[in-house]
Amino acid sequence: MLCAALFLFLVTSVATSWADLSMRCGRYLVDKGTLIDEVIAKCGDPYSTYGDYWLYRQGKVVYRLHFNWQGEVRRIQSEIRF
Asked: Residue 63's domain is classified under what CATH number?
């Protein structure tokens, strides 16, 4: 049981560190500095928004895009949801 929990933690941590760099939407790539209009053009509307961040779901992975006051992607995080 402890090994399974540790494995899940490691997999989630790796996914988060990769996602801090970019998010793929089909053949497009969204990364730090991408403007809100570009994100919508590449990925469509988010499934949810909360203040300065938007959520996109791709399978079991949920990406959280944080935007700065200029409308640029400031940070991308991901987590696996079952």
From this structure: 3.30.1450
Q: Which residues contact residue 1 at a Cβ distance below 8 angstroms, ignoring those fewer than 6 apart?
A: none
The whole domain housing 30 covers 2-80
What's the token pair of residue 18? 């990769």
Q: Domain count for the chain, please give it.
A: 1
What is the rounded distance in angstroms from the CA atom of residue 23 to the CA atom of residue 73?
Answer: 11
C-alpha pair distances (Å), 17 with each of 12, 14, 79:
9, 5, 10
Per-residue pLDDT of 20-66, as tens digits, reads 679 999 999 999 999 999 999 999 999 999 989 999 999 899 999 99
With 0-12 / 13-18 / 19 or more C-beta atoms within 10 angstroms meaning exposed / middle / buried, residue 61 is: middle
Nearest to 31 by CA among 80, 77, 76: 76
Q: Please compute Rg for the chain using Cα positions.
A: 14
* pTM of the predicted structure, to 2 decimals: 0.71
